[in-house]
Structure formats: structure tokens, C-alpha cells
Amino acid sequence: MQYGLMQGNIRLREQIAEWVAHEANRPTAKQSADEILITTGSGPALSVICHLFSKPGDTIFVDSPGYFLAYYTFKDCDLQVVDIPTDEFGMDVDAMEEQLRSGVRPSLVYTVPIANNPTGVSMSEERKERLLELSREYGFKIAADEVYQFLTWNSKFPTSLYEFDDPHNPTVFSINSFSKILGPGLRLGWVTSNQTHIARILDYGALHSGGGFNPFASAIVSEMIDNGEVDKQVTRLRDHYSTTSEALCEALEQYVRPALRDGETLHYYKPMGGFFCFVQLPDRINADELLAAAKQHGASFFAGKYFSQDREGFQNCIRLCFAFVSTEEIQEGVRRIGEAIKGL
Fold first, then answer.
1. Which ranges form a coiled coil (predicted)?
2. What angle do CA 136, 139, 140 make, to 5 degrees?
3. Among residues 80, 91, 121, 110, which one has the least CA distance to residue 175?
4. Which single residue of 28, 58, 160, 274 could bond 54 by disulfide (Cβ 3.0 to 4.6 Å)?
5. In CATH, what class is 232-342?
6. Distances in Å between the alpha carbon of 144 and those of 43, 95, 192?
């Protein structure tokens, strides 16, 4: 066994390009192996992008609520996070434009535009197009964390932000991963970007010293793509997650909404893919207090505060996961959370 090619297994890169083109079935999704770089997953890929395409003290615009583990990378790179609110159509590009017009100049924008973690929504096509226009106008790069692109349902294959990129003025890094499809222990993912950006990453010190990332796992996954096992797994996951996400929403209506007081509201977006649903409870309910009560009933969740950069926001919100569990477990878990709410 030798060091792998710095850009990664050529056959795997070709397969990824073919796979995306086949799933999307549209001209804008066509890409070449030269635009793809193999990584050890989405988190390390984001770290590389932040280190190479920003400098300490720079500003980064981030979804709010945002993916909580990304904040550690931004801190490592000494980036100043500016929250951009999200709604049912993803990152609020109008709010971002207001920041830009006020003089704030980010070097990067980080967003999870497909089946967002934690909200489960996807960015509208109009906002994707406008975000790319703004990136060219104001000169920032976009780190698009698109790890749930293959795990959506009830719609056509999602459009990557990279499909809107301009090869003459490229700004997008599409980050993807096999972790959500095959298992995080593989430590295998990829970045799709313009060849000028790929060339800059190929000059990264870790690649010079260690060669391409994870050649052993790359060979395994390449074989799995060839023999159809990856497609089978994606189909299984889509079927399972579409069922469990529906069960979660039904359980929220059956057990949580009736547990609230008269006049109180429950707010969430029906997930379009991914693993999660972000639930906003009435202001009087503190997620930490609810979590303590829920554990007494044998249930758990992730408190909303972790999805704000200072852990001060979203105090009345909770993130629920519908992956890796059965519909029966989801229904029982949400029922127990409803019981905990009644006791507050």
C-alpha cells in the first residue's frame, strides 16, 4: 500500500461525477473528475477551506440556527461569525444583503442549503441564484455543506450551489460525504469546486506530506459503487427516513401540541431530507429544563442553544433526530417529551 494520489482515487472521482450527473439528470449537474477532490469527510474539508481561503480575523456569514460543530472550525481559524437568519426557504439572502450593504465584508459564507441541520429545510432555487450573484458582486467564497444531497425525498434531486457557479468567477465549494450514506467511520467525502480552487487545495501541506486522503476507504467505496451497493443503500435510507420523518411530525401533533397550554404555539418545518427537525416551543419552556425532565421519562434531545454561536439563542428550541430509530421508538420518545412538557 502506497500514498494515494493527492487529489484522490481517480476512479472514485469519476464515479462521483457520473453518479451526481445520473441522479440529477440535468446539464448543470455535469462535472468532471478534475473538479472533485477526495477528503476525509465534511468537517475536515470545511477546515481546509477555512484555513486556505480566509485569514484570522476575517468575517464569515453563517446560518442561524447553524450547524453546531462548524463553530469549532470557525474558532480554530479565528473567524468572526455573523449570524444570518433562516426560514422555510433556507438562509435569508435579503438579510445577508442588508449586512453587505451596511459595509460588512465576509471572506466566506457557510450554509447547509440542502436538508439543513438543524432545521431540515432546503434553500429555494431563487435564493441559491441570488446568493451566487452576491458572492460575485462582493467577492466572497461559499462553503456549501451539502452532505444530505442524496438523502432527500418528495422532490427532484436537489440542486447543488455549485450548479450556479460561474467558471469565469468561481466562488463555490460543494462539500459532500459518504458518512451520512455509508457510515462516519469510513472518514471519506469529497469537495467539488472549480479547478483553480482545487489546485490551491492540492498545495495544502497535509497533502504534500501525506498524499491523498484515505486511499484505502476510497478503493472500498469505489467497488461498492461499481457493484450497486451504494445505490441500494441510498434507496433504503430514503425510504426509511421519509417514513420516520413523517412519524416524527405526526407524533409532535399527537403528543406535544396537546401538551401545551391554551393559546401557546408549536412551530417547526416539515423536514425535506436529512436527519433532523428543529422544534420551537413556547417562550416559557427552557430547553435545558425540559431536557432534565425528559430524561426522567427516559427521553432525550439536543437543546437549541447549541445551534447559536454563543449558546445564548434558541433557548426554547429542541432538535429531534429521526434517523437510526424506528417509527415506534420515535412515537414513544415524543410521547415522553410531551409528558415532560405537561410537568413544567
1. none
2. 100
3. 110
4. 58
5. alpha beta
6. 12, 18, 10
Chain-centre distance for alpha carbon 95: 20
b/e code 84-111 from CB counts within 10 Å (16+ = b): bebeebbbbbeebbebeeeeeebbbbbb
CA distance 213 to 2: 12
pLDDT band at 109 (very low <50, low <70, confident <90, very high): very high
Rounded CA separation 193/165 (Å): 9
Place of cell 437510526: 324
DSSP secondary structure, 159-199, as one string? PPGGGG--TTS--EEEEEESTTTT-GGG--EEEEE-HHHHH
Q: What separation, in Å, do the N-terminal and C-terminal C-alpha atoms of the chain show?
A: 59
Q: In the CATH scheme, what is the code of domain 10-227?
A: 3.40.640.10
Q: Alpha-carbon Rg of the chain, whole angstroms?
A: 20
Domain ranges of the chain: 10-227, 232-342
| Cβ–Cβ < 8 Å for 6, 36 | no
Q: How do strand 36-39 and strand 189-193 relate by DSSP bridges?
A: antiparallel
Cell numbers for 127, please give them.
Answer: 435564493
Non-local (6+) Cβ contacts of 313 within 8 A are 64, 65, 83, 304, 305, 307
2 has a pLDDT exceeding 80: no
Q: What DSSP designation does 311 have?
A: S
pTM: 0.97
Residue 230: partners with Cβ closer than 8 Å, 6 or more residues away:
19, 181, 182, 221, 224
C-beta of residue 115 within 8 angstroms of C-beta of residue 65: no
3-state secondary structure of 309: coil
